[in-house]
C-alpha cells in the first residue's frame, strides 16, 4: 500500500470508526467498571454510535478497497448525520440536567441496587428503573456525560464531513 493510497477518506473513516468505538466503549466502561448506572436518555445517546460504527466501518472498507467515491462519501455523510443526531440528543439531555426544559416522564425514577436473590430477579426487572435523567451522575470540568457526548459527537461529525469533502468524485 503506497502513501497515496492512504487518502483522507481512509484516514477520516478510520478516525471516525476508532472515535466512535472509543466513545461508546468509554460509556460502557463507566457503566460496567465504574458503576455509573445510565438513565434512559444516556442509553438513547448510545444508539447513534451503535448504528454508526458499522456505517463508518463500511466507509473505511470502501475507501481502503477502492470502492466508488460516491459510496464512501455517502457512508461518511450518513455517519456524520448520525453524530449530529447524537449531539442533538446530548444537548437535549444536558438541558434536562440543567433544568432548561422538562425531560421525559420515564426518567423520573431512581435506581436501586440489583438483588442478590435469583428468585427476586424477575420481579426486579419490573420494579427497578434507571436513575433520573434530571441529575448528572458525574461531572468533569463542569460537563456531565451528556455534555461530553455533545463535544465528542461534534468532533466525530466534523471528521466524517471532512472525509466527505476530501473524497474524490
Describe this structure in words.
- The chain has 169 residues and is mainly alpha-helical.
- Helix content is 64%, strand content 2%.
- The protein has helices spanning 8-32, 40-64, 69-97, 121-127, 145-166; strands spanning 139-140, 143-144.
- A two-stranded antiparallel ribbon has the order 1-2.
- A hairpin with a 2-residue loop joins strand 1 (139-140) and strand 2.
- Helix 1 packs antiparallel against helix 5 and helix 3 (69-97) packs antiparallel against helix 5.
- The protein is elongated, with a radius of gyration of 19 Å.
- Residues 1-6 and 109-113 have low confidence and may be disordered.
Average pLDDT confidence is: 78
- Whole-Å distance between the termini? 21 Å
Beta fraction: under 5%
Task: Report the strand count.
Answer: 2
Can you tell me the overall shape?
elongated
Order of helices and strands: HHHHEEH
Biggest sheet layout: 2 strands, antiparallel
User: How does the helix and strand content classify structurally?
Assistant: mainly alpha
Give the fraction of residues assigned to helices. Answer: 55-70%
Global Rg: 19 Å
Number of helices: 5
Strand order of the largest sheet: 1-2
Uncertain spans, ≥5 residues at pLDDT below 50?
A: 1-6, 109-113
Amino acid at each position: 500500500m503506497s502513501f497515496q493510497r492512504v487518502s483522507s477518506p481512509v484516514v477520516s473513516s478510520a478516525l471516525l470508526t476508532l472515535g466512535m468505538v472509543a466513545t461508546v466503549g468509554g460509556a460502557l466502561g463507566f457503566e460496567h467498571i465504574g458503576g455509573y448506572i445510565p438513565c434512559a436518555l444516556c442509553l438513547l445517546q448510545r444508539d447513534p454510535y451503535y448504528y454508526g460504527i458499522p456505517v463508518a466501518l463500511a466507509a473505511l472498507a470502501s475507501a481502503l478497497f477502492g470502492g466508488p467515491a460516491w459510496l464512501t462519501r455517502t457512508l461518511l455523510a450518513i455517519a456524520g448525520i448520525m453524530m449530529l443526531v447524537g449531539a442533538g440528543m446530548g444537548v437535549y439531555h444536558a438541558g434536562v440536567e440543567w433544568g432548561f426544559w422538562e425531560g421525559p416522564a420515564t426518567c423520573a425514577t431512581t435506581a436501586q441496587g440489583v438483588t442478590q436473590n435469583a428468585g427476586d430477579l424477575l420481579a426486579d426487572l419490573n420494579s427497578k428503573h434507571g436513575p433520573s435523567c434530571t441529575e448528572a451522575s458525574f461531572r468533569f470540568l463542569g460537563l456531565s456525560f451528556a455534555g461530553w457526548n455533545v463535544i465528542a459527537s461534534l468532533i466525530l461529525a466534523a471528521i466524517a464531513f471532512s472525509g466527505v469533502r476530501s473524497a474524490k468524485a
